[in-house]
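Data availability excerpt. The first of two example chains:
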Amino acid sequence: MKLLNFFRIPRNLAALLLCAACLTVNAAGMIYGGVRHANGAVDGAGWAYILQQGCAGCVTIFLVYAAEWLLRIRLPAPVELSLSLFAFAGNTVAGVYGVYGLFPLWDKILHTFAGALFAAVGYAVAFTFFREKFTHTQAVLLSALIALLAALAEGYVWEMFEFVVDTVNPASNAQRWKDGLLEALPDGTYLTDSRRGSALIDTMLDMIVNFTGALLFSAVAVLLFWKKPAASERFCVRRLAPHKKRADRSADDRDERDDRS
């Protein structure tokens, strides 16, 4: 009965349908990659990458819901669904279906979207706290600033992650450092096609588009929410009831049985 009531809520049903569609497309891509590997169109390393991205996609699609369950919160529905779509676009679309190789700008599109998306998360969390402590105008402006800083922090942490991955695994090319290599010299250095190095260029462009996406969201949030308090209230983080202990659940079950009898 509780499960039925859960899916009677439109946003829960939308989340279920979205995740089911993402998982179906993800599984289809992995199967197609396996067929291509069996036919010799994809080598072992390529097949391993498809498997890695496909498995990561299966997990990351649900990360936002796991975090909400653990923290007992509910993000605004557009943010919640967008986080799942972002995970799908970053792992399944880019990795499993190889869009990174077919459409190089996809990486920059994702970083731009990430800036706006994590700015939205930062705004929702900040406004939930500031609305009770400041006037509406002050809360909106402060939340927009926090949104911008939250997105910049996300971009900064991600670039550090890519640097660590490339450092630990010399075969990795997360920061595109291999893209600009022309020749390996006998003394162990490299000849590159740019004095700044392709890794630095990739990192800085990622941070610039991340900042652009965050700035755009912050500006739109101020324009949208400043004069519309009702819209701001709908874009808050909703607190859920804490998890019940086993004894409390048993007592509730007994009360429910008594009510039925």
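And the second chain:
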Amino acid sequence: MKIWLLDVYSKTNAQLSPSFDAFSSNLVRRYDGQGLEAIPAHQEFQMIMIDFMNASDNQNVERIDQLQNLEKEMGTPQRKSIVYFNSDAVIYECSYAIRELSPKIQEALKAGIPVVVIAGELQYDVSSENKKHNYTWLLNVHQSLTITDIAPKTGPISISYSNSDRDVKNLYEKFKKDLAWEVAFTTPQQENKLFFTRRKINSNYFQSLFTNVKNHAVSFVLQEGNSELIVLPNIKNTEKRGHYIAYILNEFSPQFRPGWFPERWAGAYTPNILSKKTAFKS
């Protein structure tokens, strides 16, 4: 199965199942005189994992990893003051994503390619008169989706699972010490239940997976096009988030949406509860 890892911490790749053919690319690049990395054609992939909202954290940690490796090889300390993004890179992060990423993801969803997004801290492009931020591309994917709350900077930030699905509960139990919500979402069709008829599945459903203390959705499944968009809670620590993403790809997604992984389940015995599950199909 070929998956596109967009702005995912590079060490995550080594933790993925051998059944994945993972292609990594970065929408956000430090200014190095070569511009920004091109986005590949979505038709090449069967699934897309996006950690764009945490891209700067991932790349900063990767830079530290590189410096530490150099220290081991050369036996001398390396400068660490050049790790962080300059302001121009942050501006590019927002403006380039809004222009290029939204239509690509919309096309992928229309083509039946599922998309999984890891939430991240809300960051505004201070240079933009329109107050663009790093979630603007996601809101553009589904026009009725809006942000209704932002996580406080201080104090306890609790999160709980709001879905009875066993796999959602397992994800929570495994990572509950580190799971964090960043923004809360709503949509006019919020909590429309997915139901089956002999002819079709109802369209444009929104299903909450995790909520904050106000019972606002901070993670959800949203039908869009001929597939589904899933937004999951964040984990602040980059290394731990890498383990989290690997678990989502290796364990959570194949159980939660077995229809995305026909090769994995082909000819295998599947429990009744799993065989009843399906991803959206037009």
